[in-house]
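Co-fold these.
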Amino acid sequence: MDGLAVTFVLLTATVATACGLHAGVYLDAARPWQRYFWPLFWFLWAGLNGVWLGADLFNLYVGLELTSLAAVGLVALGGRAPALRASLRYLLAALLGSLLYLLGVALLYGQFGTLSLADIAALVQGPLPGAGLALLLMVLGLALKTALFPLHGWLPPAHGVAKSPVSALLSALVVKASFYVAARLWLDLGAELGSLALAQAVGAAGATAVMVGSWQAQRQQQLKQVVAWSSIAQIGYLFLLFPLTFEVAAPVSLQAQQGITLQVISHALAKAAMFLAAGNLILAVRSRRVDALSGVSRFLPFSLFSFGLAGVSLMGLPPSGGFAAKWLLLQASLASGQWWWVVVLLLGGLLAAGYVFRIYRASFQEAGDNDDFYHPPRTLEAIPMILALLALGLGLVAAPVLSIMALPFDAVPAVLESVP
Amino acid sequence: MTFAAMLPILALLSSLLAAMIIFALPETSHRARTIINLLAALLKLLFVVIMTWGVFRGMTFSVGFTMLPGATFLLRADALAMLFAGLSALLWLFTTVYAVGYLEDSPNRSRFFGFFSLCVASTMGIALAGNLFTFFLFYEMLTLSTYPLVVHRGTAKSLRAGSNYLCYTLGGGAVLLLGIAWLHGLMGELPFRETGHFQDSDPATHLSLTIIFVLLIAGLGVKAALFPLHGWLPRAMVAPAPVSALLHAVAVVKAGAFGIVRVVYDIYGIEFSAVLGLLQPLAWLAAFTILYGSLRALYQSDLKRRLAFSTVSQVSYIILGTTLFGPLGTVGGLVHLLHQGIMKITLFFCAGNYAETLGVHRIDELDGAGARMPATSVAFTLAALGMIGLPPLAGFITKWTLGLGALAANMEWAIVVLLLSSLLNAGYFLPIVYRLWFRPQRMAWPRERRWGRLETHPWLLWPPLITVTLTVLVGLLAAAPGSPLSWARLVAVRMYLP
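Predicted complex below.
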């Protein structure tokens, strides 16, 4: 257990509590399927904690499986045809990803005779073809589970049709679990078993995800699809970890790791806030369409404001956690001479502004004659605001957070000293 | 923490907290909102006055903490900061009064005043920022908080203008961020310092520094409406009049111009900028923008659009002054930061009065308005004459100082630009003045409203009268201690004689 694991356990507790409280009000208690939500919710939480705290490859697998299965169940809640279709697609993708990951685990076990990540890292000396293949397979499987472009097809339907608190959980936490495992593998084994080509290829896939995800988010007709596609873009940033930590100086690698950690945390908070706020907006206008939002700025300014504050973090504008992450990643890209990621980081922020402000434009429109809005209960409005403010404030206290939690990973003390 | 260190934070918080409270207030509590607005404005002014007095006595107020590994959030009140902070604190007070009168009976006032306060908080942050990193934080916050003000009316036209505004400013922000991050990576953290940082820098870095300079100026130039990045400004005129006033006189364009001043003097250093050969091209660009803006203004038939192009032109005076190597040029540029502010805000207040009271938006509808609204028209006339540069008004002081600066810097061509621009200013302002006073009223006012004995709502009338009085006073008493000119001298002395 290290600072990173503790941070993620805390993060999970925060976001899951918020989503749980929200769900308690949001989900209609009269519906028969409602009782399935809670067991699945707790399974999900347990599975996530299993992933954050797992130290050997098989335990990680178990944690991931538990998480995925609970998540699939949550998507299917309600049992309507689109939800079932989406959850089935999700199930197939998750299982295929797990299979690839398990294959890699088997290969590593055959080679080293142990499943402990720390032991394998100690045993690996120089590149081994079999182990290299194992890493490749595991990264591929985990990328599929994280919905890295071009393996992202399952995510938008799944996150789009799920109930809002479920979408929030999925986007904020579930996809982070598989990314977390991939990041651990890469940082422990990547230097020996990885290659420049793999690192750059993963980075390029992430960069494409940023562009394609943001572009698609711009074009969606349904509010929750916009938010779901935005997740694809935001997940893309995470994979810049691979090129930015491969064969670079230790301080640069540290900067990149800190940046990615902040991106994970701030995206989790902001995206949960955004999905919950979007849920409120949908409740208010009784339609899932973006163009139905006109006039809502007068009737539900509070939820719209939460949505916007979360958007600030997604755009990477100061003082949000997203900005802190972007700043560190910019520094790491410039210092390692990989300027092409700079372009991605800057352009990605602008594209994000495009889809966030599209929602604003729609809601500021005064042309609509719809004056019939439903007012969601106060609790539903307060929770996304709290999450959004956390995401926003994270940037201001990024340095203390990083140093108190000794983020990220088991960084060499000497490195920590050189970067105050 | 001592009281001195608290002051910059208090100056920021006064409007930040006001914004939070206003957002929380229900839409219908007009009186409470007005009281909070005015109280916050007065408090902020008080804090700024105390800090200004301290800075005059040689103190520097600064406070900061590490926000990110290697990057500090730093607030610092130096002489230059107080120039801008003073301007925004003073004009915010008047604009708040004006806005309360202007928006009477209109919807969404809670949202409007909330973002209005956020906007001023950002401006204050920009003024007090102690390094480029902190500057950027508030620079982007300004973009975000002005967007809802620009699109306030919610019409298709204003939403389009808002999108256009965002494209320009967020794009500029991205370029600026690249410049700042690159500079940070190359040179480490650089607090603003009166003489700059790079006098003894390694010649191997000069190429990078030049490129970074271009990036920074391009990013800041969007808000400063430097040609060819000025396109958003005339379009953003669909915003309500107090917003236009704030955008043009205090917040957005000034933030850009102020940023350029900071980069040239406090990061690169004026001497080093000259050594790198960066000042000349910037001076030419500024001169071109001055003439271009004035020329375009000549052809506008909409009053607010004409004023907008006039802003494009006038803000570049500040940049021109910045690039004239020598203390006099600096003084001329800095003093125009203030002078342009009070003159332009007067003009926009008046334009708003014509629109609100008479329903007049076009210049050819203004015939005879002087008889109907004499006080407003006197204010407009004086401010316009000031813009043209008639002695002893504020604009004359600027142009005179800039001219002397150009002579001292051996850049005589700049004087030609100044003269030409004054002619053009006269060309687009005098016809308006002529129509106001000497043409008979042609037709009934498009949409007239009456307020008893007064020509318009008292809250709309007093702000322009006060700011126009200031326009006259800063010109007449330019040599007096405490005037903008003497404060700009103080800043320049500290820059050139460390």
